[in-house]
Write a structure and sequence with these properties.
heterodimer; A: about 375 residues; alpha/beta; Rossmann fold; 5-stranded mixed β-sheet; 14 strands; about 40% helix; B: alpha/beta; two-stranded antiparallel ribbon; 8 helices; globular
Chain lengths: ~375, ~290
């Protein structure tokens, strides 16, 4: 199955029943298939006038009680940044899939890029903690889409699936597990009884995980894009600002180990390691095998979660090897937090968008590093 | 209805309860709006219409954008959403699609709805999304101190049109009617009863219902344009408003010139299938195995 199709099937398995989209290459197959499949299962897949609108609509849909998603690529991702910030401050479970293509600007719509990685971390204004998963295969695109919905519900926050054109457009074997084997996190819904002590505050800062007030259920709460207190009332008090930001960032920072996913290959005896994510990890695995055949003790650390950055994972691996090599289809993005946390030298292998990283250039870097 | 309370260490105070207190977050009052502003008149009309709508308060949803009118939703004791600048309509669309039984009303200003959010406004009208959209038009960006926008009359002075606005304003009711809205009306802040009745009707209409309310804005628009006091603009509304429900919508642009009329009325009220009705049919079709 094609990666983009697998993403839609995974969303349905996860219980998503609302999709708001705007066509954009190379993510359009997700939108197209959603338009066929969502209504078959009683859901909605609607086309908005632009990505500003689709991101806003999915926040509204999520507050109406539906698991909600959209998919896009670079230019649409840029437009979504405004309301990704809104989803974050309103603590809205939502899933945004970015099938990355070449940039900047309109770039190369039909070819691969990994140039939106820092945008998925810092793209929306203000202090945010974001969560981003990077699939390297069709199977993983499926699995991580389900994971993204679960994480979004657990943390009440937007979650990114940062795929790329190669993973989105390639066809591979997909195993859809029996549904009873799939873990699905359902939303914690707030109690609507306003008179009782059971009444939940919309933004209770004493807890990391909050139930959500669903529109029309009688909670009568103010859901506020301005800096707000636990009741959702706007405030310019410093103490309110500090508590809100501490809560928004803390609920993710305090639980990073729950979110981190990574895969280690040939790392046990490695003297040098590649750190890679997304489709680049496929080039990296091929390079590591080639290097091993040349007598270089190389290993691969594949980052599945890129944000929040798995700093401890990098630190631990960097203590075991003499050097790290970070290949990316950009001119150096995820290499920066790797360098910040590594206890060994870090080098970068980059290529402009439009092609995968050539495994030979990774082998060259491994040779240089040993 | 009156209740009494005795704050610690102070004399007993008598608090008068207003008939609409049940619909307002009284603890958040006083509101932020300036003396003479028309937004409060719309708030009062909306709460009266809500109370008479026959729809439970918990099934009413208010969504606002950013700006002075953007604070509207937050004063209502119901599920209220303060969103991003210009995006109240798509946000509300998400709610209204997932829960078509809810009565969703968007209340925002002219800058929010017709300028930065203009694209969403025309497309929501085109789709005929079952929403009520109330646009309070004070001809400028008030909260940011008075800048011109898509509704500022040609020649009007604001901080960003100090020599007089060179742009032509949108004639928003004409735009809404052309885009396909089921209901289109315009009244001024003077037309208290007509605003109330229009909102009542909007709560009945299945489809996109749009109301423009022309409002005084003494400190940031009136002062530079011949209406330094709110009453000056109210007098203009009284003297120059012409009620014409059958007006040719091409001819109802607003100039605010001393000699020019201001056409108001309930211009459009037509039955057209709403977006939600059509999406419901689409779902039935898809479940039945139809499709490409």
């Amino acid at each position: 199955m094609m990666g983009n199709f697998a993403c839609v099937e995974a969303a349905l398995v996860a219980g998503c029943r609302f999709y708001a989209g705007y066509p954009i290459t190379p993510s359009s197959e997700i939108f197209e298939r959603a338009c066929t499949r969502f209504p078959q299962l009683g859901g909605y897949a609607i086309e908005m006038e632009d990505e500003l609108g689709s991101m806003a609509a999915l926040i509204g849909a999520s507050y109406a009680g539906s698991k909600a998603m959209t998919a896009t690529s670079g230019p649409g991702f840029s437009l979504m940044m405004e309301n990704i910030g809104l989803a974050f401050i309103l603590e809205t479970p939502s899933v945004i899939v970015n099938v990355q293509r070449g940039g900047p600007s309109t770039g190369i719509p039909t070819l691969v890029g990994q140039g939106d990685m820092m945008q998925s971390r810092w793209g929306s204004h203000g202090d945010l903690e974001t969560i981003a998963y990077c699939p390297s295969s069709v199977q993983e695109f499926f699995d991580l889409t389900i994971q993204a919905f679960n994480t979004a519900e657990r943390f009440r926050t937007p979650v990114f699936v940062m795929a790329d054109q190669v993973v989105g457009m390639m066809s591979e074997r997909l195993r859809v597990p029996p549904l009873e084997e799939v873990e699905i996190v359902e939303r914690q819904v707030a109690h609507p009884d306003r008179s009782a002590a059971l009444h939940d505050l919309p933004f209770d800062y004493s807890k990391d995980f909050l139930p959500m007030q669903i529109a029309g259920t009688g909670c009568r709460v103010n859901i506020e894009s301005l800096t707000h207190d636990p009741k959702g009332y706007p405030s310019t008090d410093y103490s309110v600002s500090q508590k809100m930001i501490d809560h928004l960032l803390g609920k993710i920072r305090n639980h990073t180990s729950e979110i981190w996913k990574w895969e280690e290959t040939f790392l046990d005896d490695a003297e040098v390691a590649v750190v890679a994510y997304g489709s680049t990890a496929r080039s990296a695995l091929s390079a590591v095998k080639k290097a091993r055949s040349m007598g270089i003790k190389a290993g691969l650390l594949r980052l599945i979660t890129v944000w929040p950055f798995p700093d401890e994972v990098i630190e631990n691996v960097s203590r075991k090897v003499n050097a790290l090599v970070v290949p990316e289809v950009n001119y150096g993005q995820v290499v920066h937090p790797v360098r910040e946390n590594a206890k060994c030298p870090v080098s970068s292998v980059n290529c402009a968008p439009g092609t995968l990283v050539d495994p030979r250039s990774i082998v060259d870097a491994l040779e240089l590093a040993t | 209805m009156a209740t009494t309370g005795a704050p610690v260490g102070g004399p007993a105070i008598k608090v008068e309860r207003h008939a609409r207190d049940e619909i307002l977050r009284v603890e958040r009052l006083p509101h932020i709006w300036c003396p003479g502003c028309g937004i409060g008149i719309v708030l009062d009309a909306y709460t009266r219409a809500l109370a008479k709508s026959g729809i439970p308060q918990d099934k009413h949803i208010a969504v606002s954008g950013i700006g002075c009118t953007g604070r509207f939703a937050g004063y209502l004791d119901m599920d209220s959403y303060h969103t991003t600048h210009g995006r109240a309509i798509p946000f509300a669309t998400g709610i209204a699609v997932v829960k078509p039984d809810l009565e969703v009303t968007v209340i925002a200003g002219d800058g929010d709805l017709s300028t930065i959010g203009g694209n969403h406004l025309i497309h929501a009208a085109r789709r005929n999304v079952d929403l009520n959209v109330i646009m309070v038009n004070n001809f400028n960006y008030g909260m940011t101190g008075g800048q011109h926008g898509a509704t500022t009359p040609t020649g009007a002075k604001t901080h960003t049109s100090p020599y007089g606005n060179v742009e032509a304003p949108f004639n928003v009711p004409y735009l809404m009617a052309a885009a396909g809205a089921s209901f289109v009306a315009r009244w001024t802040a003077l037309h208290v009863t007509q605003i109330y009745k229009a909102i009542r009707r909007m709560m009945e209409v299945e489809g996109f219902a749009f109301l423009e309310v022309i409002s005084p804005c003494p400190p940031t628009f009136g002062e530079f344009n011949g209406f330094p006091d709110a009453l000056d603009e109210m007098k203009y509304f009284r003297d120059m408003s012409v009620v014409d429900h059958n007006a040719d919508l091409r001819d109802i642009s607003i100039s605010m010139r001393p000699d020019d009329r201001l056409v108001v009325g309930n211009f459009v009220d037509r039955r057209r299938a709403s977006y939600q009705e059509l999406l419901g049919e689409l779902k039935a079709k898809a479940a039945g195995g139809a499709g490409k």
